[in-house]
TrEMBL record:
GO terms for biological process: arginyl-tRNA aminoacylation. Residues 1-83 form the Arginyl tRNA synthetase N-terminal domain. GO terms for cellular component: cytoplasm. Keywords: Aminoacyl-tRNA synthetase, ATP-binding, Cytoplasm, Ligase, Nucleotide-binding, Protein biosynthesis. Belongs to the class-I aminoacyl-tRNA synthetase family. This is Arginine--tRNA ligase. A motif ('HIGH' region) lies at residues 119-129. The gene is argS. It is found in: Cytoplasm. It is an enzyme of class 6 (ligase). Pfam families: Arg_tRNA_synt_N, DALR_1, tRNA-synt_1d.
Length: 572
């Protein structure tokens, strides 16, 4: 049901026959026709022939009569393709009858580990955690829907030197009081109080250092108190994930501590492979191709002089575990762009060690920053980090006000549901509709607008379609044959059959702004269709066909927004 692939496959055979070798026909949507191929232009120099001659010969060899109503050579050698309305009707009828909307489950499913979110124990989640969590969640949803085995790995910061001071502060407060303070979600105050003591009190600092040694040595009391800190923090994280409506659960927490027992074997294996070098202060690996500003090789610190391990050791242990023990062939690290070099160095070492070898690949799914109106990193008015819970609460409150303004008759219980869907959806979509490698400005007015490329616009388009069926009195709609006749129907059909192509591209690139952009174009195209093609006032087969087009559009919007982690209310 992938129309672009159907056209490309037919043209590829003809091009290959002309060129005497495999040729990518480079089929894409065009402003001059429905689709266009420009492969003849790139072939011209190789074959020593005018591109128009090549294109003309290709058209003489290709069979497109069942798919296209017009095929022509244009300009210097472009092949323009106009899809026939009957062909679109057949493709859409099949798509409407398919619960998966024409998108097949992957023929070669992989085991994929998605490493994302990664908050720190005893610290509140702030706006800096938003992008990793939202992008990672979208990756999980998309890959699971396509049939891959997806392992969600929430790499918690739950180990290391800060826990000495945190456990000592817990003891000073008393376990009951500390547990209460943590349970109400005031993690920042807890952490800041411990830090203040550590900085101001040498006695407390010494206690904290001894406590770190006890923790790393497996002292029973220290481990129990550490588990209390972790457990209360995880409860808080889960409330945030529930509010944000993402798929992470308690089963997905894989803290740094999870890999502790793997660090010594990893270090030993690196040593046996001859990769570990003593730099004086630490045992390091120097991956090839990475140098500092002074031209000297850059190290990955594996083990420090005091016997402690660097962050890279944990990352290497995670790769080794994920490929060897979990059988993962695709490792996705949804982490900000500033960490790119660190992860590229870790991947390089893992490849040298043989832990990351074909078919396994590791990908840094990097992303930019969230900026305030001043173009700087988004901060609170006091200059600190904005708590994620506070930001999400404000989104829901603003969306509730908007719902009451737009639909004063909406019951208050419905307002609450719509406000959560629209508010949280607006925050997610503002993130995912931006090319992830770019920064974006956080703008309440724009992201909650019912116009433009926003979640509320798409959610309203979906709700508007569902209202058509309520007005029609049809409670359970079953789509029949779809026929295309009007130009607005033709335009909508082209967008609908493009859904599978977009999903396939995003599966590989994880560039979710492409899916968001597609959904916005689909909704805008539906608006044109609805304006020019009466639905409920039509009669007979035309009415049934247009209702089927409406239903299919709503289903694609619903599925597409779900893959972005966004809810689609039936009423707004």
């Amino acid at each position: 049901m992938d129309l672009e692939k159907l056209l490309a496959d037919r043209l590829a055979q003809a091009f290959s026959a002309v060129a005497g070798e495999p040729v990518d026909p480079v089929v894409r949507r065009s402003q001059h026709a429905d689709y266009q191929s420009d492969a003849a232009l790139s072939l011209a120099r190789r074959l020593g022939r005018p591109p128009r001659d090549i294109a003309t010969e290709v058209l003489g060899r290709v069979e497109l009569a069942d798919l296209c109503s017009a095929v022509e050579v244009s300009g210097p050698g472009f092949i323009n393709l106009t899809v026939a309305d009957p062909a679109l009707g057949i493709l859409l009828s099949r798509m409407a009858a398919d619960t998966r909307l024409g998108v097949a489950v992957s023929a070669a499913p992989e085991t994929v580990v998605v490493d994302y979110s990664a908050p720190n124990v005893a610290k509140e989640m702030h706006v800096g955690h938003l992008r990793s969590t939202v992008i990672g969640d979208a990756a999980v949803r998309l890959l699971e829907w396509l049939g891959h085995r997806v392992i969600k790995a929430n790499h918690l910061g739950d180990w290391g030197t800060p826990f000495g001071m945190l456990i000592e502060h817990l003891l000073d407060l008393g376990e009951a009081e500390a547990a209460h303070e943590l349970s109400v979600g005031d993690l920042d105050s807890f952490y800041k109080a411990a830090r203040a003591k550590f900085d101001a009190d040498d006695t407390f600092k010494e206690r904290a250092r001894r406590r770190v040694v006890a923790l790393q040595g497996g002292d029973e009391l220290t481990l129990r108190l550490w588990r209390l800190l972790v457990a209360e923090s995880e409860k808080y994280f889960l409330t945030v994930y529930d509010q944000l409506d993402v798929l992470l659960t308690e089963r997905d927490f894989y803290g740094e501590s999870y890999y502790n027992d793997m660090l010594a074997p990893v270090t030993g294996e690196l040593d046996r492979l001859g990769l570990l070098r003593d730099s004086g202060d630490a045992a390091c690996v120097f991956p090839e191709g990475f140098t500092g500003r002074d031209g000297q090789p850059l190290p990955i610190i594996v083990r420090k002089r005091d016997g402690g391990y660097g962050y890279a050791a944990t990352d290497l242990a995670a790769i080794r575990h994920r490929t060897r023990d979990l059988g993962a062939t695709r490792l996705l690290y949804v982490v900000g762009l500033p960490q790119r070099q660190h992860f590229e160095m870790v991947y390089a070492v893992a490849r040298q060690a043989g832990w990351l070898s074909p078919p396994a690949v590791a990908e840094h799914i990097g992303f930019g920053s969230i900026l305030g109106p001043d173009g700087r990193m988004l901060r609170s008015r006091a200059g600190g980090s904005i708590k994620l819970v506070g930001l999400l609460d404000e989104a829901v409150t603003r969306a509730a006000d908007l719902a009451r303004q737009k639909n004063p008759d909406l019951p208050e219980a419905a307002v609450a549901d719509v406000a959560r869907a629209v508010g949280i959806g607006a925050v997610k979509y503002a993130d995912l509709s931006t090319d992830r490698i770019k920064d974006y400005v956080f703008d309440w007015q724009r992201m909650l607008s019912l116009d433009g490329n926003t979640a509320p616009y798409l959610q309203y388009a979906h709700a508007r379609i569902r209202s058509i069926f309520r007005r029609s009195g049809i409670e359970q709609f079953t789509a029949g044959p779809i026929s295309i006749g009007h130009p607005a129907e033709h335009a909508l059909a082209l967008e609908l059959v493009n859904f599978g192509t977009v999903v396939t591209v995003v599966e590989q690139t994880l560039e979710f702004h492409r899916l968001a952009g597609y959904l916005h174009t689909l909704a805008a195209t539906f608006s044109g269709f609805y304006e020019h093609c009466p639905v409920l006032r039509a009669t007979g087969e035309v009415r049934d066909s247009r209702l089927a087009l409406c239903d299919l559009t709503a289903r694609v919007l619903h599925r597409g927004l779900y893959l972005l982690g966004i809810t689609t209310p039936d009423r707004m």
